[in-house]
Design a protein that fits this description.
Distance between the termini: 72 Å
Number of domains: 2
Largest sheet: 5 strands, mixed, barrel
Helix content: 40-55%
Structural class: alpha+beta
Shape: rod-shaped
Number of strands: 5
Strand content: 15-25%
Radius of gyration: 28 Å
Mean pLDDT: 89
Order of helices and strands: HHHHEEEEE
Number of helices: 4
Amino acid sequence: MSGYIVWWIMAAVLVGVELATGTFYLLAVGAAFAIGGLVAWLGFEGWVQFGVASLVSVAGVTAAHRWRKSHAEEPQMQAFDIGQIVKVIEWREDGTARVQYRGSYWDAELATPHTPKRESMSIREMRGSVLVLTAPNE
């Protein structure tokens, strides 16, 4: 079997696996293997084939990483917690509270200084591990 056929088979396998993962990294490496096959088809020696495929692979993976990093979305985990009701265990003098939510205890603060303090509050947002609370009907 010719060397360029092996390159192209490996490229096809990598692109096929990429379709299952969706990360674009294997797509970059698969494209590099296809270019390595093109270099082999043009008649260059093995070290040139590997060199070109390596350079294109590094450039492609770097480009895929930068693209993925620039298009990263913020985690959407807070959406689940917004609007949920928590039980206030204690109100502190500084206006913060200790609440029970999802089986553990959390620190909480009022959304505004004018928010009424109640035994049950609603989560408006999360700031790190601190719950921001409002009255349940607000």
